[in-house]
């Protein structure tokens, strides 16, 4: 069944401004159901959790619903959904709780810095998995030598946020688990671009950010509740010691959590489907991925025909994310030129600090990133290609 693109696009008020939003890899636009859910939560009145009055009970219900929604999205357990302001903050918190001096961690040059620096700053010994700078692949074979008896955590992305590479995470998980190590998967970029099953990936921890999949600025890390019971994070003495609450510092943004649930429901309803919300999510996200990949094939084919354009990375499996430079123009100049034509793209390192270094572009301003998500259409791609062609 064709992806109902026009119906999906009509859900996003921001798209009415006429711009081609190819900046989704840095954060998507917000559909009307999410806006309505956040507004409704504020209108109804909210209190902090755990109270005896209705406004507090509403907050309790919002938190529980949010955990269930995130669990459905990634194939996890609601009792293991840790909520926080963003993935970076949560990863720093868990890195300090999981590792320290005397341990070893394995990180990769493919990852966003949010899944690198938190692990390298705990005092643990660090081992690096290298990227093939030509293909953009993360060879699995190297992990057999990198993972050892002292390895506590292997941190790896499910998809590169600039070149889209989807490494073989299940194979890396097998090597990590064989050595008794935990696998921490950064799913921030992967989650918006297709169905997610954290158990199939072999992820002990799966991190995601709702603002990358049409939700508000909320982060989540999902794990088995039994695993979380074995981890003791630093916390305030009077704050809850239950799982997952003991990993959540401070008071949550309850209205935003209502928006997270609405975003998951929106994703589940994009394409026709039936069954549980989890089943509808798998169907809908698979249809969205097919739609994105069709557009992406046209985008990359067009860019590859331009002799003044250099595309980085040609991995076998990737999200619909292109990273390129234009001869004679800095990445920022290209982004400004395209913005003047009503096309939104990003330029720079995009926090892929190690990868842009491996690609040899970090010191010269990085490159241009154009990313597709489910609400993009063919006209967005055409406008990008025409704009880049003008810079020949």
TrEMBL record:
It comes from the Bacteria. Residues 21-384 form the Aminotransferase class V domain. Gene3D superfamilies: Aspartate Aminotransferase, domain 1, Type I PLP-dependent aspartate aminotransferase-like (Major domain). SUPFAM superfamilies: PLP-dependent transferases. InterPro entries: Aminotrans_V_dom, Cys_dSase-rel, PyrdxlP-dep_Trfase, PyrdxlP-dep_Trfase_major, PyrdxlP-dep_Trfase_small. PANTHER family: CYSTEINE DESULFURASE (PTHR43586), PYRIDOXAL PHOSPHATE (PLP)-DEPENDENT ASPARTATE AMINOTRANSFERASE SUPERFAMILY (PTHR43586:SF21). NCBIfam families: am_tr_V_VC1184 (TIGR01976). This is Cysteine desulfurase-like protein. It comes from Nonomuraea spiralis. The lineage of its organism: Bacteria, Bacillati, Actinomycetota, Actinomycetes, Streptosporangiales.
């Amino acid at each position: 069944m064709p992806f109902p693109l026009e119906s999906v696009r009509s859900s996003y008020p921001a798209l009415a401004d006429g711009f081609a939003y190819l900046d989704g890899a840095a954060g998507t636009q917000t559909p009307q159901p999410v806006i309505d859910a956040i507004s409704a939560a504020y209108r109804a009145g909210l209190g902090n959790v755990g109270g005896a009055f209705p406004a507090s009970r509403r907050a309790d219900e919002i938190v529980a619903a949010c955990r269930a929604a995130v669990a459905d999205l990634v194939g996890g357990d609601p009792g293991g959904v840790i909520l926080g302001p963003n993935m970076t903050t949560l990863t720093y918190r868990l890195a300090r709780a999981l590792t320290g001096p005397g341990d070893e961690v394995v990180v990769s040059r493919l990852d966003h810095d949010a899944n690198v620096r938190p692990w390298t700053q705990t005092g643990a010994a660090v081992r690096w998995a290298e990227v093939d700078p030509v293909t953009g692949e993360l060879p699995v074979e190297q992990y057999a030598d990198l993972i050892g008896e002292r390895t506590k955590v292997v941190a790896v992305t499910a998809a590169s946020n600039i070149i889209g590479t989807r490494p073989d995470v299940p194979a890396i998980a097998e090597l990590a688990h064989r050595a008794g190590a935990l696998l921490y998967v950064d799913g921030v970029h992967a989650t918006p671009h297709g169905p997610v099953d954290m158990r199939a990936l072999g992820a002990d921890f799966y991190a995601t950010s709702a603002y990358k999949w049409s939700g508000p600025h909320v982060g989540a890390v999902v794990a088995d509740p039994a695993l979380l019971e074995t981890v003791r994070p630093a916390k305030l003495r009077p704050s809850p010691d239950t799982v997952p609450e003991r990993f959540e510092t401070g008071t949550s943004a309850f209205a935003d959590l209502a928006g997270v649930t609405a975003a998951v429901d929106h994703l589940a309803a994009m394409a026709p489907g039936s069954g549980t919300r989890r089943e509808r999510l798998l169907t809908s996200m698979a249809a969205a991925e097919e739609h994105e990949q069709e557009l992406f094939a046209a985008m990359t084919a067009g860019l590859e025909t331009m002799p003044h354009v250099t595309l980085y990375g040609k991995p076998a499996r990737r999200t619909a994310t292109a990273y390129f430079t234009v001869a004679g123009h800095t990445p920022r100049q290209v982004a400004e030129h395209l913005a003047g034509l009503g096309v939104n793209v990003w330029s720079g390192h995009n926090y892929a600090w190690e990868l842009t270094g491996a690609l040899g572009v970090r010191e010269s301003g990085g490159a241009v990133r154009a990313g597709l998500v489910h609400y993009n259409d063919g006209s967005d791609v055409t406008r990008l290609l025409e704009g880049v062609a003008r810079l020949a």
